[in-house]
Amino acid sequence: MQRQPTLLNSCASAATAAEARFRIDYPEPERRAARIIALDDRAAGLVRSLSGQHWSGGHFLSFESPVLADGAGDAAADATLRTPDGASVLLSTELDDADTAVMVATAEASAAAAAVIGDACAARRIMSAGLVISGGASGGASGDGDLDDVVAALRPNAMVLVVLQNHRDVPEILSALRV
């Protein structure tokens, strides 16, 4: 028995009206309300540059400082974030309508920043992810010890944690998250 090769246009030719009725007509996925938050100055430069691209619902922010609650001692209840245009906003306000928070960090990131954001996301049941750029936002090398500290700080505060070798991979990951 001789087999015929499958041609590249075979699937396209199976597009009659009778066959088309079996196709699943699935709506476009809903717009994601993501917050991309840089945890340090080097990551902030990358996040600012990404904010100028076309995204479908992402807010790009930089961690500024924790805001202590009255009588909370050392526990931070909120944080001040900075938008790419320099405006100051509260983390709690930004997370009110968010469904995803992506923390972007380099070896200079603060464990306190990751803890504040992670705790706020957990309290609101918001999916949190951490992107650690091992080469820094500029692509330069960083010490492995510093990177280990950042990974250790992000691990309990992010549901998903990815260590990247190159900052150029961040846009692809954000696209995969439908930011």
Summarize it:
By secondary structure, the protein is an alpha/beta fold.
Distance between the termini: 51 Å
What's the architecture in CATH terms?
Answer: 3-Layer(aba) Sandwich
Order of helices and strands: HHEHEEEHEHEHEH
Instruction: Give a short account of the largest sheet.
Output: 7 strands, mixed
The first-level CATH class name: Alpha Beta
Strand content: 15-25%
Structure description:
Residues 136-143 have low confidence and may be disordered. Helix 5 packs parallel to helix 6 (144-154). 31% of the residues lie in helices and 24% in strands. It has helices spanning 10-13, 17-20, 41-51, 91-95, 111-124, 144-154, 170-176; strands at residues 34-38, 59-68, 76-82, 88-90, 100-105, 127-133, 160-164. Strand 2 and strand 3 form a beta hairpin. It contains 7 helices and 7 strands.
Key descriptive features of the protein:
179 residues; alpha/beta; Rossmann fold; 7-stranded mixed β-sheet; elongated
What secondary-structure arrangement, pairings included, does this model have?
Blueprint: H1 10-13, H2 17-20, E1 34-38, H3 41-51, E2 59-68, E3 76-82, E4 88-90, H4 91-95, E5 100-105, H5 111-124, E6 127-133, H6 144-154, E7 160-164, H7 170-176
Parallel strand pairs: 1-2, 1-5, 5-6, 6-7
Antiparallel strand pairs: 2-3, 3-4
